[in-house]
Amino acid sequence: MARQRILIIEDEEDVIELIKYNLEKEGYLVSGAASGEKGLSMVKDHNPNLILLDLMLPDLDGLEICRVLKRNEKTESIPIIMVTAKGEEADVVAGLELGADDFVAKPFSPRVLLARIKAVLRRSSAKPPGEKEKIDLGDIVIDPGRFEALANGRPVALTTTEFSLLHYLARRPGWVFSRNQIVNAVRGDDYPVTDRSVDVQIVGLRRKLGKAGSRIETVRGIGYRLKE
User: Fold this and answer.
1) Mean pLDDT calculated for residue range 107-124
2) Could you tell me the pTM of the whole model?
3) Which are the contacts of 52, defined by CB distance < 8 A and separation ≥ 6?
4) Which fold has domain 5-125?
5) Span 135-226: which CATH code?
6) Nearest CA-CA partner of 180 in 191, 195, 190
7) pLDDT given at position 60
8) For the chain, what is the mean pLDDT?
9) Do 95 and 103 meet the contact criterion of CB atoms below 8 Å apart?
10) H or E stretch including 80?
11) Which parts of 107-178 are beta strand (E)?
12) Res 208 pLDDT > 90
C-alpha cells in the first residue's frame, strides 16, 4: 500500500519540523512549505493526499490558498485541515465554506492532530451515500426513501426541516458544517431556515433523538457535526 503524502504549509519552521517528526513516525511522507506561494507550487509537484494549512502566512493567507485549490479541478478533491490560532472562528467558518475539511487550533497536541488527519483521510476515501441511500450509523438509521428515522431502534417523528438537517449531517459524519452551510443545504418547507434558527432546530432534533442526540456536537463559534 502506497504511503500517503502530507504537505504542511506553515511559516514557522519549528512547527513544520515538530509535525513532520510525529507524522513520519506514523509512516507518512511529509513535505513542508514556509510560504503560501511555495506551498501552491509544491501541491503541483508533490500531489499530496492531504494539506495542513496555516491560515496566517506572510504572503498569501490560508483562505486565499484554500480558495485557489478548491477552484481548481485538479486540486479540489485534496482534503485540507486548517491550522488556526484561538479566536479565529470567523476565519474557520470562511475556510469551511470554501471547502476545507476540518481545523485544529494552536497550540495542539500531536496526538489530536494525528487523529484529525486519520479521520479526514478516512472520510475523504469513503464515498458519501447518495441522496436516497439508507444510512445506518448504529444508533441512528435514516431512510430517505421512506422519510423515516430511527434512534436506538425507535421511530422518530421529525419535521421536514429536522429530517433534512439530520440527513445532511449524517451523510458526512465527523465533518464540521457551518450554520450558513446548513442553511444553504436545508430547505425547510415547514420552517424558515435561517442562520439563527439552525440552533433552534438542533435543540429540537437532539431532544427527539433521545440518547442518540448527544452525537450532534456543537463546534463552538463554528457550527455542528455528527460525531463518528
Assistant:
1) 88
2) 0.75
3) 6, 7, 8, 9, 10, 19, 81, 83, 113, 117
4) Rossmann fold (3.40.50)
5) 1.10.10.10
6) 195
7) 85
8) 87
9) yes
10) strand 80-85
11) 135-136, 140-143, 148-151, 154-155, 177-178
12) yes
Q: Which helix (H) or strand (E) holds 161?
A: helix 160-170
How many Cα neighbours within 13 Å face the side chain of 51?
A: 31
Domain borders along the chain are 5-125, 135-226
128-151 per-position pLDDT tens digit: 666 778 999 999 999 988 899 999
CB 66 within 8 A of CB 53: yes
Two domains, one topology: 5-125 and 135-226:
no
Residue 31 φ then ψ, to 5°: -125, 155
Contacts 24+ apart (CB under 8 A), 13-18: 15/54, 18/110
pLDDT value of residue 160 = 86
Q: What is the pLDDT of residues 9-44, one digit of tens each?
A: 998 899 999 999 999 999 999 999 999 999 999 998
Give yes or no for a contact between 88 and 173, defined as CB atoms under 8 angstroms apart.
no
Q: Are 43 and 9 in contact (CB under 8 A)?
A: no
